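Q: Make up one entry.
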Amino acid sequence: MSDKPDNDDAEGAPGPFDPSRLRLSQSFSHGSDVRRALVTVPVRKPSAQDFFRVHPDENWRLDTALIEIKADREIYLVDPAIWPLFPNECKPRTLYTTIDRRNVLTLWPVRLPDENGRLDDWNRSAHEAAQIAMEKWVRMSADMALGAYRIDVAVGAFPDPVWPTDVTFADLLKIAFKGKMIEDLDHPVLRRLRGEI
């Protein structure tokens, strides 16, 4: 049996399993030029457990119409030409651009007032949370006794969010609604709503 450690080769140089040869340097991740590709933008309400911010620029939000298929938990963006043809299904919403503390971007749909200007306390408080979140980190949770969302504002010194500079709001819409844009009357969602499939 050899007295030579397995870490060294015959000439005394470090062997293939020597930890000093395999250890990553502290600068490994900094030395590579890597940018995370944005390929998914969820369309959802912020989690009650996460603090979030809303992009303050009005060009990063949109009042539009969406069709929500609740049974499938799917949300579709609808071409304006279709809105008057499906008034009961096309729901007016504001899409807010949000970011959480983990830098996850989302589009948050919040109901707009109806044709009579009415808005329930849940959606009114959601819009108010969005306004506050344009300047401060907030967390929002349902308060059944209140009949609205409770808005908690972070008092700690969280750093300001880093909004993406290499994408536009149109890019976010395209990513978020990839495969979920209704542009013609033959779309499977509209055929389903008409009872054809």
About this structure: Residues 121-133 form the longest helix (13 residues). The chain has a mean pLDDT of 89. Helices lie at 19-22, 28-31, 121-133, 169-176, 188-193.
